[in-house]
Design brief:
- The complex is a heterodimer of chains A (about 500) and B (about 80).
- Chain A is about 30% helix and about 25% strand.
- Chain A is of the alpha/beta class and about 500 residues long.
- Chain A folds into three domains: about 290 residues, ANL, N-terminal domain (Rossmann fold), CATH 3.40.50.12780; about 90 residues, Luciferase, Domain 3 (Luciferase, domain 3); about 100 residues, GMP Synthetase, Chain A, domain 3, CATH 3.30.300.30.
- In chain A, the strands form six sheets. In chain A, strands 11, 12, 13, 14, 15, 16, 17, 19, 20 and 21 form a ten-stranded mixed beta sheet that branches. Chain A has a four-stranded mixed beta sheet with strand order 2-1-10-9.
- Chain B is mainly alpha-helical and about 80 residues long.
- Helix content of chain B is about 45%, strand content about 0%.
- Chain B has three helices and no strands.
- The longest helix of chain B has 15 residues.
- Chain B is globular and about 40 Å long.
- At the A-B interface, α5, α8 and α9 of A face α2 of B.
């Protein structure tokens, strides 16, 4: 994909950062240099290679370089702590970690004691060579994301999945080679990575901005003449908080896209008023199927709470518990069919069998080859076929655009040794979407401040409990489980 | 309040709040907190809250874009000039 764009248009800008710009020719040459360095280090086709780099030209070259070596990309989120990084390296069996000394020195302890580390600063700018041939069903990347139970799961994505996702998105968004797409979200996110893929697939330019200061982001959108702005709900709210975005349309900006949670209806209206020249596309997806549906701009004004209809090439089913289709207006589970359905979860056949299942609506006699994704999301469809998100069937928390498993947060709190019990839940939060709350029973010698410090050390910021409340005891349901919702109500009631 | 004290308190806050490792030799009062990725978007809100609660200072919107606001040293200069007496 990258090499084709580079061959037809080598001088076109690929990745633009504040301190310089890299064209497609240089990006392709750098990717091949990284592929050669990986091969020299003993990386074989099919090996997993983890990437821990700052979002930008080198991270982009690392992604394509690993693929060119025939290996599998495992992008590690920049904000993760050693506990999560080690889990990802161990679980994926990564044979190498591409990073920089600067990044690794920032971590409070060494990671990947058994993983070979390559510093991208030591890799030459360019090299010749042919990419290792791969076919559609080969694994391209593993994206680690929270599952409904236990530690993060590795969603395993084929080359065919990557290609199908990129072509569907560029088609329905109408991405052109002249577009300048903002990159504000991590590449470890399927949504954040897709901005890079859409650029590489079409020859558009990726405009990378690292600053979280909304005024700075708006300045960069204006100066860089960004045409497409993909963001998540907390970011829209921050942008709407700045005068420069609210009061003056950015003339180049033609498209705003959202996923990672619902934008409040009021904010949708404000966005439309602030940037009336830009079309707003509201989308929904989960990593296991990349992207499921989108709401066209014409409908965003009329149905700002809908997530629209299936992306090209996909079909979305709304199923009852007995696996029969729901009527319009009836709530059921969203089930995704199509070419972006991932291969499953890496090294986890049980979780794979629960989520990636045969198509229950196949005609009798149809072989069971197809896998569909049971999303765990409750939705309904209106009379016009537009989908509405109702909630989740499990306890996954959506915060700051991330999925967070309450179990994973609770496990870390237990590991502190300060508590005997923990129940992790969330409460609505205007900016974050949801705020993580932990109710704990302290050990007799346990200390709340030590617990807070431990959580701060061991969890990335997006997984931090916003509040830790010590209680005398945690009520349980009849089955012996903690009932976080009851606890939350009890605490709220107790305070009047 | 003098600039040095504002700087020391701000540095202590940033180190603790954003989990800066003691192994990290590149961190300091002149590093760009945002470009280098020490402070994320929710962190920006927390930093502004800290400045308001600790020093009683509101940073005006146009100053958020300034070079000064990007480093601990610059924040100390911005803030110490505005601390109410």
């Amino acid at each position: 994909m990258l090499l084709r764009t580079a061959a037809s248009d080598p001088a076109r800008a690929a990745v633009v950062e504040r301190d310089g710009s890299v064209d497609y020719g240089r990006l392709a040459a750098r990717s091949l240099a990284i592929a050669a360095a990986l091969r020299d280090a003993g990386v074989l086709p099919g090996d997993r290679v983890a990437v821990l780099l700052r979002r930008g030209a080198d991270a982009a070259a690392a992604f394509f370089g690993i693929l060119a070596a025939g290996a599998v990309v495992v992008t590690v989120n920049e904000t993760l702590r050693p506990r999560q990084i080690d889990h990802i390296l161990d679980h994926s069996g990564a044979s190498a970690l591409l990073s920089t000394a600067e990044f690794l020195d920032r971590l409070p302890r060494e990671v990947g004691a058994r993983t070979r580390k390559l510093d991208v600063a030591d890799v030459p700018e360019a090299a010749d060579g042919e990419p290792c041939p791969r076919i559609g069903p080969d694994v391209a990347q593993i994206i680690y994301t929270s599952g409904s139970t236990g530690l993060p799961k590795g969603v395993t994505i084929s080359h065919a999945n990557v290609w199908a996702g990129m072509t569907a998105v560029t088609a329905y968004l109408g991405i052109r080679p002249t577009d300048r797409i903002a990159s504000l979200l991590p590449f470890s996110f399927d949504y954040g990575l897709n901005q890079l893929l859409c650029c590489a697939g079409t020859g558009a330019a990726l405009i990378v901005e690292h600053s979280p200061v909304p005024q700075r982001i708006v300045q960069s959108l204006r100066e860089q003449e960004v045409t497409v702005l993909p963001a998540v709900p907390p970011l829209w709210l921050q942008l709407l908080g700045t005068e420069a975005f609210r009061q003056e349309p950015l003339p180049s900006l033609r498209l705003l896209t959202n996923t990672g949670g619902r934008i409040p209806s009021e904010a949708v209206r404000k966005l439309r008023t602030a940037q009336p020249q830009a079309a707003l596309v509201l989308m929904y997806g989960l990593t296991e199927a990349f992207r499921s549906c989108y709401l066209t701009p014409e409908r965003a004004d009329r149905k700002p709470t809908s997530v629209g209809q299936a992306i090209p090439g996909a079909e979305l089913l709304v199923l009852r518990d007995d696996l029969t289709p729901c009527e319009p207006g009836e709530r059921g589970e969203l089930v995704h069919r199509g070419p972006t359905v991932a291969l499953g979860y890496w090294n986890d056949p049980d979780a794979t069998a629960r989520v990636f299942r045969p198509n229950p609506l196949r005609a009798p006699g149809t072989p069971e080859a197809e896998r569909v994704v049971f999303s765990g999301d409750r939705v309904y469809r209106d009379e016009e076929g537009d989908l509405f998100f109702v909630g989740r069937e499990d306890h996954l928390i959506k915060t700051l655009g991330y999925r967070v498993s309450p179990d994973e947060v609770a496990d870390v709190l237990y590991a502190s040794g300060e508590i005997v019990e923990a129940a992790v839940t969330s409460e609505p939060d205007e900016v974050r979407g949801a705020r993580i709350v932990a109710y704990v029973v302290l050990h007799e010698r346990g200390d709340l401040d030590r617990l807070r410090r431990f959580a701060a050390q061991e969890l990335p910021r997006y997984m931090q409990p916003g509040r830790i409340e010590p209680l005398e005891a945690l009520p349980r349901t009849t089955s012996g489980k903690h009932d976080a919702a009851t606890i939350a109500r009890g605490v709220a009631g107790g305070h009047g | 309040m003098d600039t040095g004290e504002v700087e020391a308190r701000t540095e202590a806050f940033v180190r603790e709040q954003f989990n800066v490792s003691s192994r990290d030799g590149r961190f300091g009062t002149t590093v760009d907190l945002f470009e280098a990725g020490y402070v994320d978007s929710i962190g920006l809100v927390e930093l502004l809250e800290f400045i308001r609660d600790e020093f009683g200072v509101e940073i005006p919107e146009e100053k958020l874009l300034s070079e000064e606001f990007a480093t601990i040293e610059g924040i100390a200069r911005l803030v110490s000039g505005r601390v109410p007496r």
